[in-house]
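Input C-alpha cells:
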C-alpha cells in the first residue's frame, strides 16, 4: 500500500461565517505558519490569490491541498477593514504527542483506492495493550486529529484510555485531516461503510493489539452495533446517544434547550412546529431545503440558527441526504439484536441527550448497563450543571467517562 503523506497546515482553528464568505479564525497555534505571519483570532480568511473562500466547504477543500514547503498568499480581513495580502510558508502538519502515549499514523485503503488516515494511540509499552477501542465519531465534519489542541477534551479522553493500556483507533473520514477524497456530500450510510471497511482492514492486518471494543460517540452510536458485529467485538459503549426516532429526538432536544433558556410555551411550540415542517418536507418527503423554506415561510425565522443553506442544500453543515439517512436509520432494533455487553454512558451535565434515553438504551440491550458520569457534558467538558454547559461555562476536561469506560472494557477483554 502506498503511504498517505502528512499534509501541510496553517496552524489555526476556525469557524464558518453564516451567510458570508470566508472563515473566522478561532485560535492560532504557536510556532505555526499562521502565527509567524501574525494571523490572529478574529481574523477572517477570504481566499488566496486564485481561490476565494465562498464558504467553509471551499476553505476545507483548499486547505486539504496544502503541501509542506510551499509559499501561499492569503487575503486576511481584520476588524472589518481592508483585507491585507499575507504571505505564509506552509509547514508539515504536526503530530499529537503526550506523555506515556505513542501515536501511530497509518492509513487504510477503500475499495476505490482512496486512503483514509488512521491514528492508533497506544500506551508507550505496546506489549501491555489490553485491547483496541474503535471510536465512531458524531455527525460534525471535524477532523479527529488534534495536534495543536493539547487541552481538547476528546484528545485528553483518548490519551487517558491509552494510559489505561488500551489502543484507541481513530479513522478520519474522506476529506478530513490527511484523508483523501471529498466527503462533504456523503450520506450517513456511505460514511459508515467507509469507516467499517477501514476498520475491517485494520482487523485483517492482524496486529496483536488485543480484542475490540466499539465506542459510538453521539451519532456514532447508530453505527456501533454493526461495527461490533463486523469486528467480532467484545462489547459496545455509547456516549451521548439517543434511542428515539430522529424526529422525536430533535423535538425533545429543541424543547429542552428552549425551556432551559426561558422561552415561553407559545414560542417553543412555534419552533417545534417549524422543525417538524422541515422534517416532513426534507427528511420524509425528500425535497430540498429550498423547497422547505418556500413551502413553510416560518422556517426563515430559524434559518440562521439551524444553518439552513438553500444554495448548498445543507442543514447545520451537512447535506440533506445525510439527515434523511439519519431519519431512516434504525435505532433500537440493532441494539436489541446484539449479543455482546453494552454500556450506555450519560454525562450528568449533558443537555443534548437525557438520562432517560440512556436508561432505555441499556434496557433495550440483552446485556445492557447504564452509567451516569458526574460533572460531564456532551463534549466531555467538566461542568457544574447542564445550564453551565449550555452557556459555555466549561471548567476543562472531565476524566470520568474515560476512566469508567476503561474499567468496564477491562472486564471484557
Amino acid at each position: 500500500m502506498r503511504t498517505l503523506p502528512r499534509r501541510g497546515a496553517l496552524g489555526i482553528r476556525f469557524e464558518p461565517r453564516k451567510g458570508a464568505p470566508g472563515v473566522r479564525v478561532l485560535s492560532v497555534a504557536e510556532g505555526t505558519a499562521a502565527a509567524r505571519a501574525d494571523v490572529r483570532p478574529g481574523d477572517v480568511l477570504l481566499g488566496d490569490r486564485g481561490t476565494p473562500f465562498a464558504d467553509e466547504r471551499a476553505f476545507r477543500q483548499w486547505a486539504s491541498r496544502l503541501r509542506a514547503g510551499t509559499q501561499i498568499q492569503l487575503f486576511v480581513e481584520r476588524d472589518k477593514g481592508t483585507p491585507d495580502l499575507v504571505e505564509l510558508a506552509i509547514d508539515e502538519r504536526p503530530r499529537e504527542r503526550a506523555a506515556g502515549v505513542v501515536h501511530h499514523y497509518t492509513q487504510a485503503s477503500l475499495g476505490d483506492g482512496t486512503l483514509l488516515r488512521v491514528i492508533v494511540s497506544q500506551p508507550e509499552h505496546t506489549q501491555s495493550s489490553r485491547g483496541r477501542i474503535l471510536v465512531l465519531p458524531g455527525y460534525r465534519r471535524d477532523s479527529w486529529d488534534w495536534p495543536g489542541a493539547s487541552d481538547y477534551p476528546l484528545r485528553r479522553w483518548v490519551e487517558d484510555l491509552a494510559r489505561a493500556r488500551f489502543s484507541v483507533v481513530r479513522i478520519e473520514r474522506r476529506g478530513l485531516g490527511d484523508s483523501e477524497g471529498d466527503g462533504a456530500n456523503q450520506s450517513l450510510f456511505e460514511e459508515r461503510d467507509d469507516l467499517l471497511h477501514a476498520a475491517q482492514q485494520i482487523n485483517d492486518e492482524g496486529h496483536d493489539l488485543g480484542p475490540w471494543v466499539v465506542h459510538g460517540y453521539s451519532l456514532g452510536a447508530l453505527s456501533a452495533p454493526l461495527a461490533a458485529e463486523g469486528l467480532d467485538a467484545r462489547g459496545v459503549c455509547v456516549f451521548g446517544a439517543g434511542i428515539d426516532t430522529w424526529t422525536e429526538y430533535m423535538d425533545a432536544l429543541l424543547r429542552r434547550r428552549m425551556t432551559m433558556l426561558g422561552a415561553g410555551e407559545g414560542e417553543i411550540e412555534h419552533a417545534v412546529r417549524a422543525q417538524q415542517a422541515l422534517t416532513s418536507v426534507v427528511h420524509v418527503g425528500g425535497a430540498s431545503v429550498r423547497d422547505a423554506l418556500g413551502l413553510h415561510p416560518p422556517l426563515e425565522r430559524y434559518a440562521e440558527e439551524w444553518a439552513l443553506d438553500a444554495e448548498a442544500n445543507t442543514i447545520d453543515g451537512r447535506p440533506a441526504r445525510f439527515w434523511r439517512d439519519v431519519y431512516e436509520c434504525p435505532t433500537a432494533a440493532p441494539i436489541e439484536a446484539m449479543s455482546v455487553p453494552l454500556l450506555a454512558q450519560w454525562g450528568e451535565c449533558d443537555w443534548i441527550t437525557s438520562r432517560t434515553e440512556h436508561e432505555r438504551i441499556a434496557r433495550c440491550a440483552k446485556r445492557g448497563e447504564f452509567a451516569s458520569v458526574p460533572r460531564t457534558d456532551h463534549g466531555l467538558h467538566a461542568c457544574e450543571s447542564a445550564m453551565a454547559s449550555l452557556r459555555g461555562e466549561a471548567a476543562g476536561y472531565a476524566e470520568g467517562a474515560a476512566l469508567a469506560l476503561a474499567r468496564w472494557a477491562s472486564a471484557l477483554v
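Residues 8-92 form a domain with the Pdz3 Domain fold (CATH 2.30.42.10). The CA atoms of residues 78 and 197 lie 44 Å apart.
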